[in-house]
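P.,

For your records, the input lines for the assembly:
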Amino acid sequence: MTDLLQSAVDTLSIGGLFAIIALALALLFSVMNLMNFAYGELIMVGGYTMYFTRDLPWPAMVVATILAVIAASVLLERVAFRPLRGAEPLTLLISSFAVSIGLQNAARMLAGANPKGLEPFPALNDVIVVGGVRILTLDLVIIGTTVAVLVGMIYLLERTDLGMMLRASAESFDNARLTGIPANRIIVSAFVITGVLAGIVALLIVARNGTVTPTIGQVPLLIAFVGAVIGGMHSLAGAAIGGFVLGAATNVLDTTLPGSLQVYTELFAFAGVILLLLVRPQGLVPARRAVR
Amino acid sequence: VKAPVASSVAARPRVEPRALAAALWPPACLALGLVLLAAALDLFASDVLVRAGTVMFVNLTLVVGLYVFSGNSGVLSLCHVGFMAIGAYVGSILTIRPALKASLWTDMPGFLSWVLDTSVSPLPALLIAGAVAALVAWAASVPLCRLGGLQAAVASLAVLIIIYTFLVQTDAVTRGTAGVIGVTRWTTLANACAVACVAVLVAYAYQRTSSGRRLRASREDADAARVIGVSVSRERRRAFVLGAFMAGVAGFLYAHFLLTFGPNAFYFGLTFTTVAMLVIGGFKSLSGAVVGVVFVSALTELLRRIEVEGLGPVSALETPGLTEVVLAACLLAVLIRRPDGITGGREPTVGWLRGRVGALRRLAPARGGGR
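Structure tokens returned:
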């Protein structure tokens, strides 16, 4: 029973991280048809910023990390995505693939291929015991942050003017422009928001792993990406749920499948994705608008 | 109702000497250029350059395979490198000496143990490698070729990850991350060039068949193609399987060049390089694929030298990565500035053909012209 609770906490924290990434991917996809492969590299930028500011007090490190990722996100929009606005989604996908590989290798050149170890928040490695269950403080912080981020995103999207403009653009970008919503501002703000989310994810993932590598963002991106596709790229909530479920499911499968099958977890997950794309190309949670 | 409509679309052009010459000109141009390039490398280049040239021809076979599907259908495939991996593994398991095989594969499952006793000479092994890759591609094409656009790209990415996971995790058959060692050298500059030229000729022949034309029609407008009776998914599957065969052959070549390889040789890195080659050259024409491979290979070799030796004020780099960074920048620049790539989707005939068509038009304005 206590084992079960411990792994439940673990599963929740992992699922939450993937939910945040999937939400960000879906936001970018809805607003500008961008399937952003380079999003994992924003997490990497955050990770290296943490590494280089590891001697500062932690609030300074958190602020520096989030600012650096926002800057990187906006810069990418300006350099790689704005010139391609309105291009085929496939062109944007190839473009973000190029940015992803370019940034990974730039990091390899500048910081080396070896993992950089750091312990950003030593205080979070304490274990607290609740009713016989040993829980890592870090896991609680991750779950708390995830909930806060998701609630914050719901508030932002549902209750603010910016959120309303974002949702309108996500539903139909052209119609939104016709009603006078400033396109550039909306797209840049989508990149700022997803940048903040990437910064938060970077802080949490690096705190969890304790290392930064040039490819730190690759696996989380792939899993969250698949989760978002499963949930539905046009539905922000669907994507977040998809990311959560897939992240949690891979964690559960890793711990419950017999050893011989465990190694094939990803194989089954991706085979499932292909099937789902065939049966429900719009994802499990369809968009609320009419589909082309 | 469907069949006659489809066959009228695919009406075979009358074979006239001039048309035949027009048809043979582009592939002859490309193949001749490749052979001359190989000859020049063989005569004048250092060993390092000859190796780079050999890799270029291996990549060319792969990219032509990718072009056969993606170029003709307009649907991006990210999994041809996975088929290449299958060709590499199948090919080397067949050609490694049986004595060595027994010591390398100690846990081979019973139903595959016959592989350890057989020894196949390179050329049949090359064809089998391609055929197995094509067979896997045929199975994968059932779901993949029903999808289009972004979803097809995502699903093909899933196929790549599935193949990679299988190769890494099935130690008994693939030796997992330990990789395959002891492959015999077969891929010389001449062999690689010959295979690449055959691939170019086959790809060109394919795109001029009625099936290839139907697929290219569906690339321009899938709905319109369906309306005139083209089964888009069937044509896509044919090209997908043919392209995978070439990718499998390229895998065989690569394995018999590297001699030691693991699954990581066939993952995102190579996928990125091949997509970059195809897009930079121009994915809508075969000459785009060829030009892209030659251009990117030359650029890569130059950058690798800078990485190793430094250039002027730039000192030698401790860790590699410059090549990929510059390649990524090139790809971005092409996507933004010249989305149809260096060749702009043209075959080498165009200047020549245009002259012909122009001359015809001047003679008989009413007849018009065009391809």
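Two observations worth noting. Chain A touches chain B through 42 residues (CB under 8 Å). Strands of chain A lie at 116-117, 127-130, 133-136, 211-212.

Regards
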